[in-house]
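A brief tutorial aside. Many learners find it easier to grasp structure tokens once they have seen a single protein encoded end to end. The record that follows does exactly this for Response regulator transcription factor. Read the sequence first, then the structure, and try to relate runs of similar tokens to stretches of the chain.
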Amino acid sequence: MAKILLVDNDSIVLKTLSHPMEKAGHCVLLASNGRRAWEVLEDNPGIEAVITDLSMPEMTGQELVEKMRGESHTADIPVLMMSSVCSVSAVTELLKTGSSLFLPKPVTTRDLLAYIGSATRTQAKAS
């Protein structure tokens, strides 16, 4: 199945969201902030999608996406941004800066798995 990078500074969220993805057969890599996520992306070629929280210490989800879009080896990886705080203007800005989709927290397992399926199918067509 897919190799997914899940990024959140809340260890409970990481555990809660990674379990159903792994149960569905996906390889899930974890990072607790955007800086660590960038290191994981650099060290693990073949990541097919990134699911990240917006608000994190050291490097936010938006900063991570902006960095990804600026590098050729990560520019086309789909990114799902999630946050418990959202406004229409904030979501619009996130989508303009390169997030593929925004979901408000709490994210349901069904929505998460549907996004992974859609993102990885899109990646396969682009390759």
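Self-check: The CA atoms of residues 79 and 99 lie 5 Å apart. If you spotted this yourself, you are ready for the next section.
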